[in-house]
Amino acid sequence: MRVVRPGELNAGELDVWREIRAKSGAPANPFMEPEFTLAVAHVRPSARVAVVRDGGDPAAFLPFEKGRLGRGRAIGLGVSDCQGVVTRPEAALDADELLRGCGLFAWEFDNLEAGQTLFVPDAADAYPSFVMDVGAGYETYESGLRERSPKFFRTTAAKERRLGRQAGEVRFVFDERDPAALRQLMAWKSAQYRRTGRRDRFAREWISTLVRYLAHTRAPGCSGVLSVLYAADRPVAAHFGLRSRTVLSCWFPSYDPEFARYSPGLVLHLRMAEAAAAAGIEVLDLGRGAAEYKDALKTGEIPVYEGAALRPGAGAVLHRLAREPSRRAHGFVRERPALAAFARRALKQAGRLRGH
């Protein structure tokens, strides 16, 4: 096994990585492609990849970020919506040996892919990641939505018509290349984070730079896609995500609060689903985290996992002491809807106070 910076992987190794993913049978999530790891390496000098060989040929890849004193984390932790080891099914991997070879006592993850048998036993929590299945075409998806949530669909369609009448002709661009539209989306999202009392991700330079970098990434397995809903040529909602040939990973959606009464974010997601299906995409992955719009739009869900693989030793003990109390507190709140709702209201109130 060798551990390298992502940029040191040769063309042959990158091709093997893509081939393993293509043959894995797992959804073709763009976060699991080498292009995402290479993009993170552009903004995170701690990015590394462990290359495990079997008989001289690459058999597995583990992308990670190496922190102080041997503490490791999934590549892009905090923004990556799918994580794990890329491995041939026949490769005999041992988690402890892999971590030892990487010089790590821990490897943290918060969106571990379902089916990652090497690390799922180390998960502390499982969460649903909500999906929209448009593999049979948008018409089939819409028909199912009308049956599941007739009032939701009628209301959203009526709001889109009203938006067109009152704000100007509505149009949608699935793959917008205007950098000004991306800047607008990031400004909306930053304001939304602050308004809801959450940490502004785009205030962190590495995240905003990563998004701008991925906006220019064009590869079959991982391409940045900026989708924009316009009214009279004014952007009213937008989304930036990553796509492969068959999966659109929904990442950063937001909208202009001035148009909130028209629910432009919901209109945007339906337009995205229609355009994605026409482009051959089969699944829109809305990600983990409960939200009313996800409940309305979803056709199903897949599990993702949070936790840490730990190699026995003093470092593992210290990690548990530092992480478990916080994790258990979050779990306690999450499992009690009334308490979770109170926490959300408190966050929004804190956001309003910060805004004054």
UniProtKB/TrEMBL annotation:
Coiled-coil residues are none
Q: Which SUPFAM superfamilies match?
A: Acyl-CoA N-acyltransferases (Nat)
Q: Per the database record, which ranges form the BioF2-like acetyltransferase domain?
A: 153-294
Please give the name of this protein. GNAT family N-acetyltransferase
Task: Give the originating organism.
Answer: Streptomyces crystallinus
Lineage runs: Bacteria, Bacillati, Actinomycetota, Actinomycetes, Kitasatosporales
